[in-house]
Amino acid sequence: xxxxxxxxxxxxxxxxxxxxxxxxxxxxxxxxxxxxxxxxxxxxxxxxxxxxxxxxxxxxxxxxxxxxxxxxxxxxxxxxxxxxxxxxxxxxxxxxxxxxxxxxxxxxx
Length: 109
Description:
By secondary structure, the chain is an alpha+beta fold.
């Protein structure tokens, strides 16, 4: 989100997102099973031959993975879609976060 490089020893958050075509169960009638779909399949295949394969794939499923710094992780949690409709700007004045100190505190509990 911010574009900052995250060093291997720094805290990072992995954001994984998937977007896919929704599938709703449909009622299948006997008439549906008796229907010959060969012509429909042929037309659909013919139409798809003239389409961009990458676009066809992305119309069905696309997955993303991002490494976020702490500030970007917090901004994402506050406003996952990044819309201005949230009514506020994500805060950029987060307190500093020391990974080593955090891990030491965990070990003392």
